[in-house]
Amino acid sequence: MLYHSTNNPAHRVDLKEAILRSLPPDNGLYMPDTLPVLGPDFWAIWRELSFQEIGYAVAHAFFHEDVPAADLKSIVEGTLTFDAPLVTLAPGDHILELFHGPTLAFKDFGARFMARLMAWLTRGEDRELTVLVATSGDTGGAVASAFHRVPGTRVIILYPKGKVSGLQEKQLTTLGDNITALEIDGTFDDCQRLVKSAFLDRELSESLNLTSANSINLSRLVPQSFYYIHSARQLPAGVEPVFVIPSGNFGNLTAGLLAMQLGLPVKKFVAATNINDVVPAYLRSGDYQPRPSAATISNAMDVGAPSNFARMQALFGNSWESMKGKIEGMSFTDDQTRAAVREVKALLDYEIDPHGAVGWLAARKFRAANPGNATITLETAHPSKFLDVMEQEIGKDAVAIPDRLAVLAGREKVAVQLPADEAALREWLTK
What we know:
Blueprint: E1 3-5, E2 12-13, H1 15-21, E3 30-32, H2 40-45, H3 51-63, H4 69-79, E4 86-90, E5 93-97, H5 107-121, E6 129-134, H6 138-147, E7 153-160, H7 166-173, E8 179-185, H8 188-200, H9 202-208, E9 210-212, H10 218-224, H11 226-232, E10 242-246, H12 251-262, E11 268-273, H13 278-285, H14 309-315, H15 320-326, E12 327-331, H16 334-348, H17 354-369, E13 375-379, H18 387-394, H19 403-406, E14 416-419, H20 422-430
Helix pairs in contact: 3-4, 3-11, 4-5, 5-6, 5-10, 6-7, 10-12, 16-17, 16-18
């Protein structure tokens, strides 16, 4: 299959170029020329399939022309070594727990799949691959874990100074070996801008053999569509889910749209954001106005210029009417988010992180306006990654810290300080 740029359909490349180069030279995003659909044979049995079998079917639909079946099956099985269970809090109120992977965040699904696919695409080559990634919190940790000590790769993670939680930062800055963290004096949007500038510098990109692990890379999104189908099959037959997605860069929601394109029946998507509500504002008005991001307690969603918006537009034929017909946008303040953390614990005896709390607020609001619907809220990270907020709202020691996160607390942070300047990043990279 060939892949084209959202900015120029005539610019088309093969799978290896789309995945390893990540970003077209025109600053668009790669999309497959043909969006696959899973056939009736799959949908006749999908509720009886395992998570791994669903993952393989989806991956095969996208990549079977380029990756042999046995290799693709191995990639999927190596990715899905942990579950994504659906938890029911109350009738119609479901939580999809996506934090059971090694770094306790939904990004583990995409990062692990991508690392394995890239290893397959570069098999037999002796040139080092440089993975350049921007993170607002969880992406960096998942990518660092997925690529740690992988031969032939080095990983460079840009993160905004003072704008990730303490334990998130330790996940980025304590592994060492082939992982380097750059602490940028700016916002996540600055980090994302710097990464894009490096890719658009074709001389630099070629000389360093750059690839991206952000959701601008299509191989991050395909495996995230696995768990939409996996969760929907856990509902009673005939129930079309309303997926509520805490959203920042909108890769997760785009993955849900890909699942729907594959044939999954979805009643509605709800894009739940904090005060960085660029997409909900667009869904209300039709006017897309990116702006500098503002810091919140749901830091992974602090994005003012979501890169995957271009893919969302492409999937709806650049039609505002079509997009707002399928996606509803809602935004909430930090005060509302804190109240939701307390309420979910007090009423439902469930610890929900600040990002999931934003989603839960949106799910409750949607069900109030649309009685009888079943919402699935994506809980994207374990609450222990945001201990400062959780302890303020529900008490000290209320959230158990899993061992794989607790061991990081005493490790020394190692990070390179850089300004939010393209020339400074280029100079550091070329050194």
